[in-house]
Amino acid sequence: MRLLLPAGTTETALIDGISAAGAAPELMEHTPSADVEILEYGEPVMSPVTPVSPNGCPTPAAVTRAVREVVGFDASVIDAGLTQSTAAPTVDLDAGPGGDIRESVAVPDAKATFDRAYDYGASLPDDRLVIGETVPGGTTTALGVLTALGEPAGVSSSLPENPIERKRRVVDEALAASDLEPGDCENAPLEAIEAVGDPVQPTVTGIAAGALESGTEVTLAGGTQMIAVAALLRHAGIDAPLSIATTSFVADEQGSQLADACERFDCELTVTDPGFDERDHVAMARYCAGEAKEGVAMGGALSLVPEGRMGEVRDRLEAVCARLGIESEDAGEPGAENDETGSEPAEGSRGP
Amino acid sequence: MRLLLPAGTTETALIDGISAAGAAPELMEHTPSADVEILEYGEPVMSPVTPVSPNGCPTPAAVTRAVREVVGFDASVIDAGLTQSTAAPTVDLDAGPGGDIRESVAVPDAKATFDRAYDYGASLPDDRLVIGETVPGGTTTALGVLTALGEPAGVSSSLPENPIERKRRVVDEALAASDLEPGDCENAPLEAIEAVGDPVQPTVTGIAAGALESGTEVTLAGGTQMIAVAALLRHAGIDAPLSIATTSFVADEQGSQLADACERFDCELTVTDPGFDERDHVAMARYCAGEAKEGVAMGGALSLVPEGRMGEVRDRLEAVCARLGIESEDAGEPGAENDETGSEPAEGSRGP
């Protein structure tokens, strides 16, 4: 099993009030670069920003890393259009950053990126891939491609109050700028991405398509952005079995829409509740209040936690939060304590 | 603990008869790109070449990967001047490929690369780093910098018969091309690298310097190339404790020279014998015959194997060799058997 994390950017994220991924718009493009450092090293390393909301809600990368430190899994990051350098190792598929979907073309190299991602996905020897994403503004571009494909679409949000109407207005404007009506891109997924998507979409879709067609099991790790990827795969004619693993936070917000979408795109759905309500810790409280919800493969990572070990994940999350400068009044000690193990995964990776 | 693998190239490798890293000169520049794919995925993925000698001797990357599959350790690859793309994730420190040391300047960006590597090494949260290298021609550039620094130098070879005299002639020519006499670069390590080194040297030296000065324990994983790095560090005025971990194959070839060099540069030396003579397998037989000997952090990886588990490493090496297309008459079965586990590390990285 290998977790893959395509990380990229889209200028769509800069549109007022559609994303919470990053405190200020000008810092948001640093978020995916910081997320992948957290996944690789356990904390930001060269990144000038630490993705924690003003309320003390850490990026989902903190949760994915916490799971990695408990169960241990291989992870590889793919540069799917980063604008800011990162100290994390990344696979270079030569994908560029995405433009504002309100321009006529949002992802000019969508087809070339899909092709390179397909070859990469087809070439991996792993028997199973869990594919996530980190791209601020990604739920809006997900709504964009779903609408262009003609799929009934609701999308999630990293904000407690989902600005879905604002996103719909942005998508309407985006489709108009590309001379498209909803449904005009049916069975033309790459055209949908090129017009109103983001560069992480052809990367995830391409890797998944190449992997599925070479017999590799694929789990899409995420919420409504992965519903969009599933739709893109089905509109590309890929009918192999597919599963989606997301968090209870997305499931609670989406209600029956999520299961309906999975049924429509023939995806097996796994929802995992990390039990954050069992802890009195600011970071977990923010997730329970509906902040962040999902991202950076959080739901997929949580689905890898064996029965009975979620408590260890919560312990480790406190340690990761302490590294990110989040100390909960009530939870300082365990955090500090766990932090002694630094950024080492839990499995035998210290050597003698 | 994290294993770091700077991977790069130098045109010096194209000089006739100085390197065995790669069957043909024109394919040699693919070797480091293939090595890092083997470390990350367990076999070459997008690389057009598989680094196995005509005699069936696999790249040391196969051994380092075998150890990783047994004991498990974090590993990050640094692009230290690759010319060929790789499917492995790499940290981008903006280092360019190295030129032929017989030109006046071999590594034009040595200082800038050292500075970026220093910042990277200083920023890592790990308590201990094991730093290796993969750069065809690296023992010749090691002889180059050692000579420029004025250090008595013998270097190892990936060939059973070390073409040391040929290397000395190349280095003499290289120094002359840079208007240097042996010893002219005493206490000026970056000038030595710029004139007669390779881009992996400022990367390894910079990361080690930054890590040591920020209190991180550093083990240099390699043979005479790491002796050269130790010399560069000491000539840079870094006097922190340092250790070198290499293979018994290098130690057997170098005899007392190795211990003498470690004493001169105040390095603790660890030599590990993988017990390849206990197996009747072509790959292990080639190492016992003196091919390859070291590289891709092999000695450092072997030093991480706990007492009594080297047999598992040999079993796993047979599986890795099978993936590289090396089947030993006597060892086909175990290889095939082990291969069922694909490229998964041994520790619990499958998830449920």
From TrEMBL, chains A, B:
<dbReference type="GO" id="GO:0008939">
    <property type="term" value="F:nicotinate-nucleotide-dimethylbenzimidazole phosphoribosyltransferase activity"/>
</dbReference>
<dbReference type="InterPro" id="IPR036087">
    <property type="entry name" value="Nict_dMeBzImd_PRibTrfase_sf"/>
</dbReference>
<protein>
    <recommendedName>
        <fullName>UPF0284 protein HYG81_05255</fullName>
    </recommendedName>
</protein>
<feature type="region of interest" description="Disordered">
    <location>
        <begin position="325"/>
        <end position="352"/>
    </location>
</feature>
<comment type="similarity">
    <text>Belongs to the UPF0284 family.</text>
</comment>
<dbReference type="InterPro" id="IPR002805">
    <property type="entry name" value="Nict_dMeBzImd_PRibTrfase_arc"/>
</dbReference>
<dbReference type="InterPro" id="IPR003200">
    <property type="entry name" value="Nict_dMeBzImd_PRibTrfase"/>
</dbReference>
<feature type="compositionally biased region" description="Acidic residues">
    <location>
        <begin position="327"/>
        <end position="342"/>
    </location>
</feature>
